[in-house]
């Protein structure tokens, strides 16, 4: 099973509550860029798990313009200060149901870093840039392997394909 863990795009610094912070224009564009890049690697996700906060729901909206998903769920277990071990258990349970699945998680710092650390105990929690995506591979009975962590700042200069649908980044 492949698990892709993504941090939401850049969000406005303030709102009436943390849960209601929306994406900025840059956040929408970063997410668009990552979505187009990720769609070249994974055409369909069997399951997408999204934090219920506004900025993660908006991130998924941007992603869904370029990525297909069989099932999308909004999970309180993925909020910024939720327990990463519980979220990891949820992912492992889904992995038991479909060992060939591609799963996408859209969440927040510090959850995304702690989730990587929980699934890959030999890896320290990485710091994700906004719209950053990590790929983990879960092998039966062997735990997860940390494959890579990419962000919009890496994708844009190193990939020749233009991404014209991303507003200010195009």
TrEMBL record:
SUPFAM superfamilies per record: Phosphoglycerate mutase-like
Gene Ontology molecular function terms on file: protein histidine phosphatase activity
Keyword Nuclease part of the UniProt annotation: no
SMART domains to which the protein is assigned, alphabetical: PGAM
Keyword Aminoacyl-tRNA synthetase included in the entry's annotation: no
UniProt KW keywords: Hydrolase
InterPro entries xref list: His_Pase_superF_clade-1 (IPR013078), His_PPase_superfam (IPR029033), Mito_Ser/Thr_phosphatase (IPR051021), SixA (IPR004449)
A Pfam short name: His_Phos_1
Cellular component terms per the entry's GO annotation: cytoplasm
Protein name: Phosphohistidine phosphatase SixA
Protein's organism: Zobellella taiwanensis
Gene: sixA
């Amino acid at each position: 099973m492949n698990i892709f863990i993504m941090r939401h795009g850049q969000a406005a610094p303030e709102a009436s509550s943390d849960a209601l912070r929306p994406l900025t224009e840059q956040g929408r564009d970063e997410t668009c860029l990552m979505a187009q890049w990720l769609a070249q690697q994974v055409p369909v996700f069997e399951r997408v798990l999204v934090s219920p906060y506004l900025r993660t729901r908006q991130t998924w909206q941007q992603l869904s313009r370029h990525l297909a998903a069989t099932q999308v769920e909004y999970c309180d277990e993925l909020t910024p200060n939720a327990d990463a071990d519980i979220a990891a258990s949820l992912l492992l349970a889904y992995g038991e149901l479909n060992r060939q699945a591609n799963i996408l998680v859209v969440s927040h710092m510090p959850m995304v870093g702690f989730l990587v650390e929980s699934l890959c105990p030999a890896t320290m929690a990485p710091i994700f840039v906004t719209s950053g995506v990590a790929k983990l591979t879960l092998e039966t009975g062997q735990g997860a392997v940390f494959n890579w962590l990419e962000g919009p700042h890496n994708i844009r200069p190193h990939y020749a394909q233009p991404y014209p649908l991303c507003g200010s980044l195009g």
